[in-house]
Design a protein that fits this description.
The mean pLDDT is 81. By secondary structure, this protein is an all-alpha fold. It contains nine helices and no strands. The chain has one domain: Glycerol uptake facilitator protein (Up-down Bundle), CATH 1.20.1080.10. The longest helix is centred in the first third of the chain and has 35 residues, at 2-36. Helix 4 (91-112) packs parallel to helix 9 (208-215).
Amino acid sequence: MEKAKRLGLPGELAAEFAGTMILILFGVGVVAQVVSGGSAGSLGGHDSIAWAWGLGVMFGIYVAGRATGAHLNPAVTFAFAIFRDFSWRKVLPYTLAQTAGAFVAALIVRWNYNDMLNAIDPEHTTATQTIFSTMPGNGTLPVSLGSALIDQIIGTAILLFLIVAVTDSRGTPPLANLAPFVVGLIVVAIGFAWATNAGYAINPNTVQLVARMVNTGE
């Protein structure tokens, strides 16, 4: 796209960094609030998590969309390289920028909720690790690693298929300014239907490293 050509690769990477950071600030932030901030769902539950993740995706797309199309997800970048003639030489830089954005956002969430997380989980166990990373059965349900893997493959495939379908100019795409809203709704729908087995990460760019570094003390 013309905008991306004018910005150059550094500008594109900055956009992917910022867009992914916004996405994770809302997504991980809402999970931290639900886990740490109240009893009996007083500060939200699964529905608020699904909606906040969808809104985070929408806002992230609005931030990065004009510069890069807003991949915000290594799986999307990889799929666009296969199906949309996206340059393979940009796949690794985009992935690194997205990972950095997610990492910084997770650190901000961890810093912001530090007092509450220390209060409810002073040993920094898996009870709060699920704020920053996903596990089979969300760490509490009897879901095997294999089932969680299958779940993630299916959920990510649904996400990528619908993104490609929604943004295909040969079909019936939404108006350009509505596309982020529609993609956000896709994420909300996946959250409503595919969250039990592994928390619907649907993104290789999860923040497991942050969980280990700042939440479990490893």
